[in-house]
Amino acid sequence: MRRHLILCLILICSIISISGISSAEKTDSAKDALVIQGKILDSAGSALSEANILPYLNGKPFIAMGHGAEAEKEYSTGKNGLFRIEIPTTEDKIKSGKWELKVTRPSFRPSQLTALKVFDDGVSEDGVHRWIANASVQLKRMQGAAFWIALIVFLGVYVLIAFEIVHRTLAAFLGAALVLFITHTFGHFDEAYNILTWDQALHSVDWNVIFLLMGMMIIVGVLKVSGVFQWLAYKSFEVARGNIFLLASVLCVVTATVSAFLDNVTTMLLLTPVTMEIALVLKISPFVFLLPEILASNFGGTATLIGDPPNIMIGSYAGITFNDFVINLTPVVVAVMVAQIIYNKFLYGADYHKAKVEDVPKMISFLKEKYKITDSKLLYLGGAVLLGVIALFVCHGFLHMEVSVAALFGAALIVLLCKMDIVEMLEKEIEWPSLIFFIMLFIVVGAAEQTGILQVIADWIKEVCQGKLWLAVLVILWVSGFASAIIDNIPYTATMLPIVLFLNKVIPGAESGVLWWALSLGACFGGNGTIIGASANVVTTGIAEKAGHKITFLEFMKQAAPITLISLIISSVFLLLRY
Predict the structure, then answer these.
(1) Mean pLDDT value across residues 86-97
(2) 118: helix, coil or strand?
(3) How far are the Cα atoms of 105, 355, 360, 362 from residue 281, in angstroms, in the given order?
(4) Can you list the domains of the chain with their CATH numbers?
(5) What is the arithmetic mean of pLDDT over 17-44?
(6) pLDDT in tens, 31-56
(7) Which end of the chain is more exposed for a tag (fewer CB within 10 A), N or C?
């Protein structure tokens, strides 16, 4: 009995002792802590998210204090490149130990051990005695396996798009899927193959662009039911009253104006059929009107944030407002439109004289009957909503509201007020292949950015420009112009956005935003250079070909290239004089 009592007492004392030690450890660990905070940057000075932070103590990875199981702990930076880690430990280790920091991230060289200076921050209200260590680490790019794989995929997607080997949506889809697949298979076992993670892919997509396009597609889809766009073409003929040069000029102005507020692809989809009919009645080639309209749609779309996909992408990425686009680009667009109308006279003067206008009043009556407003109530309601959306576009900078919010609200409201079938709108009016193309392309470009491909291009442009703003303006403008003539200006613009952002930081005077305007003018105007340079070109010539009117690649370039060069020259003078 006595022996059992003694054993019980020993057991109780042991439990109390162990509990006391554990409690003491918890108290000690809770009383003292080292806070390490700072920012991780790349070689261009941009913040790096998802960089891994590993504290070192006396030359070895720090082992966090635990209860029976000790483990090495790794921390990471947030989206802004900042990090703050609090390490519970003892005062002795904090004061006497040598604290260092090591930073790693895929596609970057691991940092050297960075020595930390520890400062006593005193005891805070929660009773913890904290010491503070600040650190800012800059990582250098590394061209490893991820870099070369991403480069091959990136170039492969461009080749597939440029030569139309497969549909551009499929090309971007394949590229995006491939980089994600490699990252989450090979990259799981070896960090060298970590190209782009799922989270990084989601963040690389500019959803503001996607939802803006979606909203505007629905608004246009409702409005076109009223017949207003075909009515505008008829009114153009009525204004010209048989003067073919005046008719061509009015059609260009109408196309440019509509394209400034609706995307140019939609504008050409709606105006092409009626334009072709007018040309056939006049017994001249439809391209006498269609090609100037294509050029005008790309010129006019440049004037506003929502007129052309490159501008939508630039505005969203750089935080440029609708009003900024109008103020800075409308003057040069007006000058270029004047030049185009003069150019049309020289290029198509003989065709204008060949046109047979036998009975103008009869032709006007025919067009009036065929292309009249079919639903006035829908036009008034839809027009009011569209004007409201445009007003929100104008005010979105003041309201700190993304333009996509205005477009989506307008789309929902116009469908409700006009009593349209939302399912039908979503199925028929939204160009899902185009939206999927944008999403997948953003992911491919995100992979190029994460692995450092775009940084290599940016560094090369920086070296060429040698810090001279005027030279950078001309390089961005003319390279964009020629590149957009060869490949679709949408993927080109997506590639250039991070590059121009980098150049804005390193070239004195670029903070004025002039490089963004150079990119916009080059990408939008350059898209006129060839038949594949812009989406409106491809769509319009495709419709004409289905109707039996084909224009070859060389014929298109022969007629469009001179005015494209003239537009880039006017843009060069405008940018250099203004900035």
Answers:
(1) 86
(2) strand
(3) 66, 9, 11, 11
(4) 29-138 (2.60.130.10), 145-204 (no CATH)
(5) 65
(6) 888 999 999 988 767 788 888 998 99
(7) N
